[in-house]
């Protein structure tokens, strides 16, 4: 009898490895201790019951012993089934023994609520020549029945809500879905899918939802007519199908995905949501989403078959067996065969693999399904030959929250401190089965910079709280320190680098952090030699996070080959050369010229004669907003700004400047003045990505270093031409121009097209069109309210209006104005010159004089007063009075001709601050700010009146 190795949380001495990553939280592990030649001994699937017992099915082709149980060598390859208790102690070991069976293979096992065990697979006994089988065992390992089917293999077994079985039986051209009576193995119903099947060895673990609906996939590689759940579909070549039937075998829906294959990458959760990974084929579209090669290959579908999410790659790890979805968690697993030295990262867990083909790492990752974040990651080591180090075949979760893994290894496998080894011939394998507790998985290794040594030395352990970064730890640079790394060696191993908000560090471009750089603070780039920043650091690691990169000198050129999810600040002593790119953050211009083109999807801040973009600046825009373009040439600053007013069409607008004036001189007029020359500051070209279809904008140009200016700034106007060979003309509405310290600004509004712009010089003053041409403003009493109305003949850059009110007794002084409302600007229609009408109602006028001030607000926030109107109110009977008035703690009402039923005190915005029904003689005031209030009095006879009450 061969020796059994079962070790539960026992430390076994082993050879230390530089890459030792056997994981943590392991409860127990089991193997036979003897390896057999290929195909060898291996565990292929797992099931668990409500008590935490573990069941496994696998293959063996030599004698096998586990604990006190043994199986003799089979004829060919056969199937073993084993049961372990929750503590990892084997309870029984059985051979699957139909009457004449051998050369059998099972990759699926499940258990029902009564503890009955079901396995399925293929029986290649010579007399059967490869047919699918399904077998039932009781909980003691006694076979109750064994059934054969017409196709090649059973690749999936699930238990339906009624306790009966749903199985998938398939070959490469046919797939059958069968409902099987759990008692005697008879077939209740069959759904045939013809001319479409699955590759041999395809395993489906989860395909029945909580309501008993069934989901499955199959594919065809040729032009044919297939039948999927009774639906006939004609294909022109490679096509995959995803189908759902109910628990009676009736079709719910069928989805066709042309020119692509869904084979191993399919599972569902308990609600029937599908998770799909497409493989093979050049792709096309699926529900309107591209599936072309290297495009979207990961999809999620709801239980009606409708796409709800897609991405280029799966957010969860997956190998030859699909990840598992359990509740709000996803469990991904795979075996990483080394071969070449590399690292992999899951969340903050970092694994490094050596350049040897005899070593592999089994990796398990738990994700939080709602947000996709890694909850934990665990691992175990597998060693074998270069031909066969082992395999990681199955993962299951138990009712008690444990995770069980199964597979095969060559010479040894290590789970935490438990080392299992096997002896056998070359290229042999033994099975393994192991369990761990996810709650006991160690947190990822992290080392934090403390700067305690105050020397900035990366390689000084005194500056770290968990040792110098060695590539296996997350490296954190926190905020709030007085000392940060200044000396970073070329061989620094950051592993995963995280720079906190408020932290700043200088980072060389060759810094190695293969697990990623998360920059929420500031990375300074201040290279001493010339080079390129192409959006990544060493190992093509692209920084993520919300931070910024600050370029400190002109040694580094910028060439962003992919969008950068960071902000960039230019704070350099010289000109920084750029070869283009896009940043999704902000561009901050502090010092130094950025020479080249750039697209900015965030904000652009700063900008001055010492820091601007000498090239094309493109900015992402919205329908309304202000956008500055600090552009120029290598030796001339020439910013332009736009105020967009309800535009549609453009998503991005680009601006560039040239100091060379080409084309013909202008010959046009503006406001009755001739324009025959241009300010020789230069020409601006402003271009949208999509033509403007509605709305308008205001443009302001700023000219520097000109030599032909005039004395009166009112002579400057914005002119525009369609292209370099077109004629200059005056468009839109002229705004205010200025001239100071050698800088000219000119503004024009109500412009509806983009092209070349310049500052024209008129022969005299060009009238300025005010933002709003107010033609009427009235205020009049209407019942117990005041109605304000006004009209405008034209508007430029108008955001809207603010209404202010002040009170004052007749013949008395005016009191302070209070804002009581706003009215947005009305939309102006093209070629419609009708006046724009506005109205506002004050529902709480004061007794006495009411003063109303109308103020217009530009899109840039500038306010212009348009006038004051007065309305006088006599709201109460002549005998009624309030006393004391001003009041402090209380007030009373006297002289009323009808009894008072209710009083409501409001502020000037009409908001109630006090309500009293059937008030007493003295009405107590709450704690209120000093000011003017309106008292609304209701009388028993149904009348009402309003009065001013001042509170001191």
Question: What oligomerization state is this entry in?
Answer: single chain
Poorly predicted regions are: 1-19, 809-813
How far apart, in Å, are the first and last alpha carbons? 102 Å
User: How large a portion of the residues is in β-strands, by DSSP E?
Assistant: over 45%
Average of pLDDT: 90
Task: Describe the 3D structure.
This protein has 952 residues and is mainly β. Strands 50, 53, 56, 61, 62, 63, 64, 66 and 70 form a 9-stranded mixed sheet that branches. Strand 68 and strand 69 (743-751) form a beta hairpin. The chain has no helices and 84 strands. Among the domains are: 162-199 and 206-316, no CATH class; 445-614; 623-769; 772-873, Coagulation Factor XIII, Chain A, domain 1 (Distorted Sandwich), CATH 2.70.50.50; 881-951, Immunoglobulin-like (Sandwich). The chain is globular and about 110 Å long.
């Amino acid at each position: 009898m061969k020796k059994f190795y079962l070790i539960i949380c026992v430390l076994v001495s082993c050879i230390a490895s530089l890459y030792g990553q056997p994981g943590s939280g392991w409860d127990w592990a089991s193997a036979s201790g003897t390896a057999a030649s290929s195909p060898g001994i291996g565990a292929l699937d797992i099931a668990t019951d409500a008590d935490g017992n573990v069941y496994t099915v696998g293959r063996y082709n030599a004698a096998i012993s586990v604990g006190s149980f043994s199986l003799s060598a089979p004829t060919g390859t056969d199937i073993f089934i084993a049961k372990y208790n929750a503590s990892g102690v084997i309870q029984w070991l059985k051979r699957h023994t139909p009457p004449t069976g051998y050369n059998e293979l099972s990759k699926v096992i499940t258990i029902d609520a009564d503890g009955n065990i079901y396995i399925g697979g293929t029986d290649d006994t010579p007399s059967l020549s490869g047919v699918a089988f399904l077998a039932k065992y009781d909980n003691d390992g006694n076979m109750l029945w064994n059934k054969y089917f017409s196709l090649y293999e059973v690749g999936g077994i699930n238990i339906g809500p009624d306790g009966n079985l749903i199985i998938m039986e398939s070959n490469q051209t046919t797939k059958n879905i069968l409902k099987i009576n759990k008692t005697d193995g008879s077939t209740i119903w069959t759904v045939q899918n013809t001319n479409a099947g699955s590759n041999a060895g395809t395993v489906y673990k989860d395909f029945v939802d909580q309501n008993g609906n069934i989901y499955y996939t199959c594919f065809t590689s040729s032009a044919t007519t297939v039948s999927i759940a009774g639906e006939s579909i004609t294909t022109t070549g490679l096509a995959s199908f995803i189908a759902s039937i109910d628990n009676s075998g009736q079709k719910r829906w069928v989805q066709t995905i042309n020119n692509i294959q869904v084979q191993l990458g399919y599972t569902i959760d308990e609600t029937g949501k599908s998770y799909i990974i497409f493989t093979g084929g050049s792709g096309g579209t699926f529900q309107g989403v591209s599936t072309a090669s290297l495009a979207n290959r990961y999809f999620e579908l709801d239980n009606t078959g409708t796409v709800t999410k897609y991405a280029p790659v799966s957010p969860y790890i997956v190998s030859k067996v699909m990840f598992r979805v359990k509740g709000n968690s996803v469990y991904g697993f795979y075996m990483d065969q080394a071969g070449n030295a590399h690292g992999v990262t899951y969340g903050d867990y970092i694994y490094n693999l050596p350049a040897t083909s005899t070593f592999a790492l089994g990796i398990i990752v738990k994700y939080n399904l709602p947000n996709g974040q890694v909850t934990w990651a665990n691992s175990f080591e597998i060693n074998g030959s270069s031909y066969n180090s082992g395999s990681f075949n199955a993962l299951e979760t138990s009712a008690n929250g444990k995770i069980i893994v199964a597979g095969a290894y060559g010479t040894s496998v290590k789970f935490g401190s438990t080392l299992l080894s096997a002896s056998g011939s070359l290229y042999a394998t033994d099975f393994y089965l192991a369990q761990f507790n996810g709650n006991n998985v160690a947190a990822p290794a992290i080392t934090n910079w403390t700067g305690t040594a105050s020397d900035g030395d990366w390689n000084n352990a005194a500056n770290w709280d968990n040792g110098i970064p060695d590539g296996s730890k997350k490296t954190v640079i926190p905020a709030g320190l007085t000392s940060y790394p200044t000396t970073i060696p070329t061989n620094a191993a950051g592993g995963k680098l995280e720079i906190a908000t408020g932290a700043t560090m200088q980072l060389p471009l060759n810094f190695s952090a293969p697990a990623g750089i998360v920059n929420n603070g500031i990375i300074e780039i201040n290279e001493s030699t010339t080079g390129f920043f192409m959006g990544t650091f060493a190992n093509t690691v692209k920084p993520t996070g919300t931070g910024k990169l600050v370029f400190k000198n002109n040694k580094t050129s910028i060439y962003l080959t992919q969008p950068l999810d960071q902000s960039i600040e230019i704070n350099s002593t010289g000109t920084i050369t750029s070869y283009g790119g896009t940043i999704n953050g902000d561009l901050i211009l502090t010092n130094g010229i950025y020479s080249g083109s750039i697209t900015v999807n965030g904000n652009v801040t700063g900008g001055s004669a010492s820091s601007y973009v000498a090239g094309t600046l493109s900015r992402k825009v919205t329908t309304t907003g202000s956008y500055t373009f600090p552009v120029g040439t290598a030796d001339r600053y020439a910013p332009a700004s736009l105020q967009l007013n309800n535009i549609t069409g453009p998503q991005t607008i680009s601006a560039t400047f040239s100091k060379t004036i080409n084309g013909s001189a202008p010959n046009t007029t503006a406001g009755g003045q001739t324009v025959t020359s241009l300010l020789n500051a230069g020409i601006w070209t402003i271009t949208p990505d999509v033509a403007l279809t509605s709305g308008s904008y205001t443009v302001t140009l700023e000219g520097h270093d000109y030599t032909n200016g005039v004395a009166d700034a009112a002579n400057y106007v914005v002119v525009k031409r369609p292209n370099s060979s077109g004629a200059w003309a005056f468009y839109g509405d002229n705004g205010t121009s200025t001239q100071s310290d050698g800088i000219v600004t000119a503004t024009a509004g109500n412009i509806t097209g983009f092209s070349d712009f310049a500052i024209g010089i008129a022969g005299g003053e060009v009238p300025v069109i005010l933002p709003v041409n107010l033609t009427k403003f009235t205020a009049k009493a209407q019942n117990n309210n005041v109605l304000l109305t006004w009209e405008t003949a034209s508007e430029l850059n108008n955001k809207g209006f603010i209404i202010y009110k002040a009170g004052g007794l007749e013949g008395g002084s005016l009191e302070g104005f209070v804002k009581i409302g706003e009215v947005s600007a009305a939309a102006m229609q093209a070629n419609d010159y009708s006046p724009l009408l506005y109205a506002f109602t004050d529902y709480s006028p004061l007794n006495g004089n009411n003063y109303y001030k109308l103020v217009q607000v530009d899109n840039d926030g500038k306010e212009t007063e348009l006038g004051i109107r007065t309305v006088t109110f006599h709201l109460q009977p002549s005998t009624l009075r309030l006393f004391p008035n001003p009041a402090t703690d209380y007030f009373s009402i006297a002289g009323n001709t009808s009894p008072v039923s209710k009083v409501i005190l409001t502020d000037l915005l009409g908001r109630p601050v006090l309500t009293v029904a059937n008030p007493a003689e003295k009405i107590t005031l709450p704690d209120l700010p000093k000011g003017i209030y309106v008292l609304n009095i209701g009388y028993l006879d149904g009348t009402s009146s309003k009065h001013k009450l001042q509170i001191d």
